[in-house]
Amino acid sequence: MTTNAKHHEYDIELGLLQDVFERHSMEEAFLEPEITYDEIGEPKISQLNTARVFEIVVRWHAMKVLYKIYMNPSVRSHRKQVKTMIHPDMDTKLHECATEEAMPALTDSNQCVLCPERSYKEYPRFYLALTSHWVLVERIWLAKMTHYKRSSSWNKRYAELWDQWTDNQDRTLREKIELVEVVDFIWGYLGRNIFKGQFAQLSDWIAEADLAEFTISETPESAWASFIARVTQELRPPHIIELLILITWNSEMVWEIDRPNYLRQLGFLEEPQSVEEKDDTITPNTQFSLYELDTDVIYGLVDMVGSEDSYELCQKQWYAYKDTQWKNNMQGRILAYELTSQQLFELIMSAGNG
């Protein structure tokens, strides 16, 4: 394993951001100065010391747990039957996922044996997509937990984050599409399944003082959907693994922990909005929904067309492809394909044309 390979592109920054996150977990509540974000924003290879290399190696192997679940036949079969969260309909139809059958538990009898040759090709791409999104989750958390001197700086920070979320110029079209697949699996599929079954009651996870913000919805399903849309912005892969093991797949275990505080430490419902001077009237949108990641793919198509006027056409083609061909042709398979961005572009732009 070489730490300068493409799939380790985000590892140094991710490590620096996690250092800040851990500092907040261990100390009294405080806000970061703006300089913290600036220092982390351009990680340098000189920051790759022995401890950081060890951290990267550990993360690389630990995330194979999620890849192994991704490849599990029982999970793949179940996932094909349920909705994808990265879809424009999820803005209004996420509540329908509340009553879908929960994902199967992993047991000794249904564990999958990974093919070394396939894993060698697929896992680096899985890991790149995972860390690409994870580092964004950490950047958003840091943006929330920063004290700004001016509101214009606050707005600029979130404008940059929205560009990274919905029009990321650092990714190829193939990387954008692979990110949609991996994020939908980890955050969308596994993430929402954590909060089903025995501990599906929102009161288990939300402090009484905050509960009304969600239960004001007309139905329990709508309240659950509102909660899922918010909480998936805060979950990190290690927490998803931890919660799956401790709650979803070990329901007989008594997990003595303050669940609302657990989520709050991740940043759930934390909105300090600490600004010294208001020098503009704009308030940024701080809620980053998974379904909006489709926009990143659409802009990737627009870039390949070469005309900003093609947005509506590209949007139509991407949604047509997702609705008619994604589940059967790409979901669970795209990481195994050697398709170039150009080939994917041609495939998507021809959707519905015969």
Task: Give a structural overview.
By secondary structure, the protein is mainly alpha-helical. It has a three-stranded parallel beta sheet with strand order 1-2-3. The mean pLDDT is 88.
Labels describing this entry:
354 residues; globular; 16 helices; single chain; 3-stranded parallel β-sheet; mainly alpha
Strand content: under 5%
C-alpha Rg (nearest Å): 20 Å
How does the major sheet shape up? Answer: 3 strands, parallel
User: What integer is the average pLDDT?
Assistant: 88
N- to C-terminal distance: 44 Å
Provide the succession of SSEs. Answer: HEHHHHHHEHHHHHHEHHH
Number of domains: 1
What is the subunit arrangement here?
single chain
Backbone shape: globular
Question: In percent, how helical is the residue content?
Answer: 55-70%
Strand order of the largest sheet: 1-2-3
Counting helices, strands and paired strands, the structural category is: mainly alpha
Number of DSSP strands? 3
Low-confidence stretches: none
Q: What is the overall number of helices?
A: 16
